């Protein structure tokens, strides 16, 4: 319970003042714990922020693996819609945390964590594409990489630039279409 309170407080402090104004003292006060308790779990601000990012990545990773299990053996249209919907559901389940993560990414070098998350996501998609009965990719791993980039980039642009309900509704409608169009085109490219 204490760790969860610290994570919630961290997000609140981040959104109120950004990474530059976040201190362990402010987070402890918001969480209702002592600074000593904070240091038991997180020895410094960077450890706290990295733990928050890793927690969010783990939640998204779990959601995508669960979706992949449900979608195994499905055709490209079902895979495109299912992956896009699962991605949006995972990213939007905690909009506040997702927006806070993008703020952290702007301030700290998260390239290693992001690279590992992208590799896991690409592997999940690659496995789905390998088992799609209507898939005929010349380079399936590149198609999986591109689909992961399409998903990640689309959501990031909206989260950072225009995080409105209208734009999230657009994403829900258009991202599955974009994913499907890409997969069909990439798969047909192998036939040409």
UniProtKB/TrEMBL annotation:
Going by the entry's taxonomy, the superkingdom of the source organism is recorded as Bacteria
Q: Which Gene3D superfamilies match?
A: Tetracycline Repressor, domain 2 (1.10.357.10)
Q: What's a Pfam family in this record?
A: TetR_N
- DNA-binding region(s) from the entry: 23-42
User: Does the UniProt entry include the keyword Repeat?
Assistant: no
- Recorded GO MF terms: DNA-binding transcription factor activity; transcription cis-regulatory region binding
The HTH tetR-type domain covers 1-60
What is this protein's name?
A: TetR/AcrR family transcriptional regulator
Q: Which organism is it from?
A: Sphingobium fuliginis (strain ATCC 27551)
């Amino acid at each position: 319970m204490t760790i969860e309170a610290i994570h919630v407080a961290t997000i609140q402090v981040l959104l109120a003042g950004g990474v530059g104004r976040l201190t362990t003292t402010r987070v402890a006060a918001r969480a209702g714990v002592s600074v000593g308790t904070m240091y038991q779990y997180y020895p410094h601000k960077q450890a706290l922020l990295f733990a928050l990012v890793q927690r969010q990545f783990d939640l998204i990773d779990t959601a995508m693996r669960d979706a992949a299990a449900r979608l195994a053996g499905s055709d490209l249209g079902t895979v495109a819609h299912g992956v896009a919907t699962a991605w949006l559901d995972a990213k939007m389940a905690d909009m506040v945390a997702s927006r806070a993560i993008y703020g952290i990414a702007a301030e700290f070098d998260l390239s290693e964590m992001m690279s590992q998350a992208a590799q896991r996501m690409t592997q999940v998609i690659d496995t789905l594409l390998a088992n799609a009965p209507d898939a005929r990719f010349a380079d399936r791993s590149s198609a999986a990489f591109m689909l992961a980039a399409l998903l990640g980039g689309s959501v990031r642009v909206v989260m950072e630039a225009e995080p409105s309900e209208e734009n999230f509704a657009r994403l829900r409608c258009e991202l599955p279409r974009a994913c499907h169009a890409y997969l069909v085109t990439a798969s047909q490219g192998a036939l040409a």
